[in-house]
Amino acid sequence: MNKKKAKKAARGSEADRSAKPYVKHLAIILAGGIIVRIIYDVNLPNNIFLGNYTLDSLALHTWATMILTGQTENEAFFRAPLYPYLVALLYKVFGVSPWPVIVFQNLLGLLTGVVSYLFARRLFGATVALGAALLVVVYPTLIFFEGETMITTLAVFLYTLAAYRLLLAVHEPTARKVVVAGVVFGLAAITRPTILPLVIIVPIALLAKHGLNSYKKAGAKTLMFAAALMIPILPVTLTNLIKGGEPILISTQGGANFYIGNNKWADGITVDALGPLLRVGPYRDNIWTSSVDEAERRTGKKLTQSEVSSFWYREAFKHVKNDPDRAMRLLVKKFYLFWHGQEIFNNRPVYFAGEYSWLMKGLVWKKIINFPSGILFPLMFLGLILAFVKRYDVTAPALFVMSFAVVVSVFFVCARFRQPIVPLAIIFGVFALHTLKTQLFKNRKAFVFSGIILLPLIVGLNWGGNVDSKTNLSQFHAAIGTACVNKRNYIKGITHLERSLQISPRNLGACEALGQAYLSLGKLVQAERVYRQGLEHFPTHPSFCFHLGAIYQKREDLEKAKEHYHLTLEYAPEYAPALFQLGSIFEQHNQFDSALYYYERLERVQPYDARFKAKIEELKQALEASQ
User: Fold this and answer.
1) CA separation (Å) from 25 to 114, 123, 131, 227?
2) Each residue of 435-460: pLDDT tens digit?
3) In the chain, which end has fewer C-beta atoms inside a 10 angstrom radius, N or C?
4) CATH class (in words) of the domain with range 557-627
5) Could you tell me if 345 and 54 are in contact, meaning their C-beta atoms sit under 8 angstroms apart?
6) Distance between CA atoms of 579 and 602, rounded to whole angstroms?
């Protein structure tokens, strides 16, 4: 009995010793991550984009607030829904503010570091795990996106967790581990559906691990994985069926994104609306509205959500079929740019973070070497090569990383789209550094061989100077300029917006924001110049016509003002500001019948506004009195 107790005590003390470094490492990781996030978050109030929602962040913020008020669209989902519903929950509990979202995403960033530690420890041991996890929690682009109301941080966490759970399921394919992996994949899919094609790596990884003779077991486990995958997805599909009348799996954005990345003029990195943005009223997702409006214009009929997505897929495949050589060159280019060191602009300017955060100024820059990605991805490729040479079992995570890069490249690439595999890239990169350190002291020939591989990778993935497009550069300045104007920093805003239009005169958003800035400063001549330039490129854009009318009204040239307001309504019959101004002008000149006509139209456009009902009654009484 005493011997049994002694053995049990020995096992217990051994377990305690093995747990101590584990707990110590996690404490170091979390402490480092918390300190860096406090430093960054303290500077966030200086960020002109804080609470200044535009493009995707505006679409997601608007969607979350609509969920709160129960005013969601009675249609199938255009975007994957998990993130906006989480944001809506945060708004409900803590109030509508960017800070609950930022703090939540900070916590997700820390959890991603923990998962990365477990992942790397399983692959390469505790030393690499500690280094990799520390780098994950302080990696600047990951921290940058934690400060934005965007899907990126949630996708990073769920994709990293999905890759880790896949590794566990492949190594030991018990029913529990396979089901957990499938459920995590499903959660990642309703955050960003680009993970769905990666299901194909499940049977491949199982066969690679357990041998070709295990094909029956691999098939059964893959089916179990697929069934578990559907657990989080099925409620989304049912919602689409109930609201949209179509059994859409998750969302319908795929067709629009595929066309953006594969049309006749596509360069693989530039995002433009698929048609003119002519809708008025409360903001709705521009990519969604333009994809619907343009598809219906081209087909000449009303289309369902799935029909719109299918239309854009067909249009893109036409271009691929007509010029397959160009399509293949474009795919290769996109795959290369996915790994390039430069952070390609989309929605939010990563490099602008240095303007308000000294931390980002020191950690993110583009010069001869684009830091940090221009170092990380070459190290990642070296780490993958060394891991296979040393016969580490990295098939599943390697397939995950490379397959994801291919899937994203099929659409279009940008900095935020590649963030979900950054933690895995860091794990392989730190493994490469650890191996290089060992080789330097123990095997100089191997060290030289690794250097011969690494140096061309660094040169190649930082080659070409500025690889971003002119349109994206224009959007970069437009985003900063618009944010400055919204914060009433008109002088700085005008500087960026003028620069944006110099680069790309067809930048509609820059044109609108610049005209508004000049109007706010009372500079009518400059505002008129901007709006007339806008009409040269967008001759039927209602906003430009309306603002020209407003300028004439300020100059008391009411005939020209009315002319432009009428022209606005030709292009957009429900443009509420034009209806209101026409009603006001006619009322001021006692033309009550004309004023009543426009206010009644306005009341039909905005029936929820009680002011217009009262105005209509007032005008009816005035009309009766005048008769």
Assistant:
1) 10, 16, 10, 36
2) 999 999 999 999 999 999 999 999 99
3) N
4) mainly alpha
5) no
6) 6
The larger pLDDT score, comparing residue 9 to residue 19, is at 19
Structure pTM? 0.90
Sequence-distant (≥ 6) Cβ neighbours of residue 476 within 8 angstroms: 345, 349, 352, 468, 500
3 state SS of 348: strand
Find out whether 586 and 566 touch, Cβ atoms under 8 Å: no
Which residues lie below 8 Å from residue 202, measured CB to CB, with a gap of 6+?
166, 169, 170, 221, 222, 225
* Residue 192, burial from CB neighbour count under 10 angstroms (0-12, 13-18, 19+): buried
Distance of CA 309 to the CA centre of its chain: 19
Q: How does pLDDT run across 314-325, given as a tens digit for each residue?
A: 999 999 999 999
Q: Give the Cα separation of 554 and 206 in Å (integer).
A: 72
Non-local (6+) Cβ contacts of 281 within 8 A are: 574, 576, 605
Written in H, E and C, the secondary structure of 394-459 is CHHHHHHHHHHHHHHHHCCCCHHHHHHHHHHHHHHHHHHHHHHHHHHHHCHHHHHHHHHHHHHHHH
Domain boundaries, the chain: 20-251+336-460, 557-627
In angstroms and rounded to an integer, the radius of gyration of the C-alpha atoms of the chain is 28
Work out the percent of the chain whose per-residue pLDDT is above 90: 77
Residue 16: pLDDT band with limits 50, 70, 90: very low
Residue 48 phi, psi dihedral angles, 5° rounding: -65, -15
SS3 category, 465: coil
Q: How confident is the model at residue 2 (pLDDT cuts 50, 70, 90)?
A: low
CB 102 within 8 A of CB 61: no
CA dihedral 376, 337, 510, 263 (to 10 degrees): -150
Nearest to 352 by CA among 367, 342, 369, 365: 365
* Structure-block tokens of residue 412: 């279009």
Question: Which whole-number Å values give the CA distances from 571 to 456, 533, 599, in the listed order?
Answer: 55, 18, 19
